[in-house]
Specification:
- The protein is of the alpha+beta class.
- The chain has two domains: about 1-35, no CATH class; about 35-170, Nucleoside Triphosphate Pyrophosphohydrolase.
- It is built from three helices and ten strands.
- It has helices at about 80-90, 140-150, 155-170; strands at about 1-10, 10-20, 35, 40-45, 50-60, 65, 70, 95-105, 115-125, 135-140.
- The strands form three sheets. Strands 7-4-9-8 form a four-stranded mixed beta sheet, with helices on both faces. A three-stranded antiparallel beta sheet has the order 1-2-3, with no helix packed on it.
- A hairpin with a 2-residue loop joins strand 1 and strand 2 (about 10-20).
């Protein structure tokens, strides 16, 4: 795949690509997509099987969403360090040990963003959310129900909750 840069904004850029078709014949397509450094998500679960979540307004979709703590991986930062930093910034909770439990692409038609998921069972601190956020503990079973009803959450949270559901076998 050949790529050429079309527009650059801050850390993200829009790239135009020439791609090959499935049947092997070379065809030129203009495919704009967002070049993304990646995202890290923390699946913080306490001894009562409650999950640390945040609620925040997302202007791009015009809704307040329930999300798992996480954010963009900064240059020079590992996804694990980003998950730790974002969780502390967004919630006031400091993850101690993080274990990788999977990755996925967020939306392959428009971005190359890879989302990294980390499980955290050991942490310290008290909830002190970042301005504009509400951080809270929610029972995993209730969060699973929220995902099943497709109520006010984003895709990375749905995948993260599914990973937790598989790990803790909760319906």
């Amino acid at each position: 795949m050949q790529r050429r840069r079309a527009v650059t904004e801050a850390e993200d850029e829009i790239v135009i690509s020439a791609v090959h078709s499935v049947n092997g014949k070379r065809q030129r397509y203009l495919v704009p997509f967002l070049n993304h450094p990646g995202t890290a998500v923390c699946l913080c679960v306490d001894h009562k099987l409650r999950v640390l979540a945040v609620e925040q307004y997302r202007p791009v979709v015009g809704e307040t969403l329930i999300e798992l703590p996480g954010g963009v991986v900064r240059p020079g930062e590992t996804p694990k360090d980003a998950a730790r930093r974002e969780t502390l910034e967004e919630t006031g909770i400091r993850p101690a040990r993080l274990f990788s439990v999977g990755t996925c692409f967020s939306s392959v038609g428009v971005t190359n963003e890879r989302v990294h998921f980390f499980l955290c069972r050991r942490f310290s601190g008290a909830i002190q959310p970042e301005k504009g956020l509400r951080a809270f503990w929610i029972p995993l079973a209730e969060l699973v129900e929220t995902v099943m009803k497709a109520q006010a959450l984003d895709g990375k949270t749905a995948v993260g909750v599914w990973l937790l559901q598989q790990r803790f076998e909760c319906s």
